[in-house]
Design goal:
Blueprint (H helix, E strand, L loop, with lengths): L11 E3 L2 E3 L5 E5 L6 H14 L3 E3 L17 H14 L3 E4 L6 H7 L2 E4 L7 H8 L5 E4 L6 H13 L5 E5 L17 H8 L4 E3 L1 H5 L5 H10 L4 E5 L17 H17 L5
Parallel strand pairs: 3-4, 3-10, 4-5, 5-6, 6-7, 7-8, 8-9
Antiparallel strand pairs: 1-2
Helix pairs in contact: 1-2, 1-9, 4-5, 8-9
The structure holds manganese (II) ion (MN).
The site of manganese (II) ion has 5 residues, from loops.
Length: 266
């Protein structure tokens, strides 16, 4: 994944969407797929606001085993229905090697979550897939460890990798994580891969999602991934950091000016 081997920047195709091109890629949707109604209303809202890719978790890695773990296969079916309805390609997390074949069949982009960044068997397995991979940075991973994790996927044969900075754990717990803005230009300098940012998990609070998203784009990110829920107060996971579809539309509006200032479009 190093730039030494490939000086020009890579563009990764997700369905018909290009990630890493002049136009920024905006991924939006709920943390978890909860129901048909929740997902479809969310999908239509983010599409209307201009999102390019729909996110939604079917297999959720949760800190507590007693929290909602996701709808699993039913969630994948609902995501496929939302793609059918809106035309948006879908990204969803694959949490375990046993799910890879099924998720690869259903999704347009396979997400490796922060907690799985160094699950080397899983990296190898998605490295053998024909779908692109979204690799989140581990919450306690150095930039070098993150890029080496991408190398595991590439070495297994899949060069369609998108990196995602999502905040790291530091001494400061004011926000959910500490958003590492500097990781964006460093990852872009060291690799040819597209780099996006996840301001939702980095901040953990809806009111700080917009400023982190704007900062990421100003720093050279190729896109953002934002959690959106039709009723954040009723979300089964990550409600406090989820934006309503109308708040998301407002962020999209603000992203356009920053994108323009750095020679990109939304
Ligand atoms: Mn989440």
């Amino acid at each position: 994944v190093s730039r030494e081997g490939r000086p020009e920047r890579s563009v990764v195709r997700v369905g018909d969407v290009e990630v890493g091109a002049e136009k920024l890629a905006v991924i939006a949707g709920p943390c978890s797929v909860e129901s048909e109604q929740q997902l479809l209303s969310c999908a239509e809202g983010v599409k209307e606001a201009g999102a390019d890719i729909l996110r939604g978790g079917a297999y959720k890695p949760r800190t507590s085993p007693y929290d909602f773990q996701g709808l699993g296969e039913e969630g994948l079916r609902l995501l496929a229905a939302a793609r059918e309805r809106t035309g948006l390609p879908i990204v969803t997390e694959v949490r375990d090697v046993r799910q890879v074949a099924l998720v690869n069949e259903c999704a347009d982009l396979l997400q490796i979550g922060a907690r799985n960044m160094q699950n080397f068997d899983l990296l190898k397995e998605v490295g053998g897939c024909d779908k692109p991979v979204l690799l989140k940075r581990g919450l306690a991973a150095t930039i070098e460890e993150w890029l080496k994790a991408a190398e595991h996927i590439a070495a297994a044969g899949n060069l369609n990798i998108i990196l995602c900075e999502r905040g790291i754990r530091t001494f400061d717990t004011t926000l959910r994580y500490t958003f590492d803005l500097g990781a964006i230009p460093v990852a872009k300098a060291q690799t040819h891969l597209p780099v996006i940012a996840d301001p939702s998990h980095a901040s953990g609070q809806a009111e700080y999602v917009a400023p982190l998203a704007l900062g990421a784009i100003a720093a050279g990110a190729d896109g953002v991934m934002i959690e959106v829920h039709p009723q954040p107060e009723r979300a089964l996971s990550d409600g406090p950091q989820s934006l309503t579809p109308s708040a998301f539309a407002e962020v999209m509006h603000r992203l356009r000016s920053v994108a323009q200032a750095v020679g990109r479009s939304v």
